[in-house]
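Hey, I'm writing a tutorial for new members on how sequence and structure tokens pair up, and I'd like a real worked example in the thread rather than a made-up one. If someone can provide the structure for the chain below, I'll link this post from the tutorial.
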Amino acid sequence: MVHDPLTLREAAETRLGNVLVLFSVLTFVYSLMIIGQVLIGLVPVVGLAGAYLTYRGLAVADSIADAAQRYAAVKEREVDLEDETPPREVGTDPTERTTTRLTDREE
């Protein structure tokens, strides 16, 4: 399943996005005009930015998982196709070893 995450502009155009942007702007203006502290106004902005970046990060992880599943499905199909090939007779491949000597890997 391919999921296309919302961009920041698309997220701001939704009803919830409009409310969150309005809340952030009003909080920032309130903190500057009434309280006189910039950092208080940055709290909702940083919080919303963190939530959005988390959403985008999870969307990337989901895309990576989908790609891994597609890759595994292709490999599984390749293995199934190899299993359907008729078995070859032993001794017809010139690269086969005819000695019974063990190699370093087999020991």
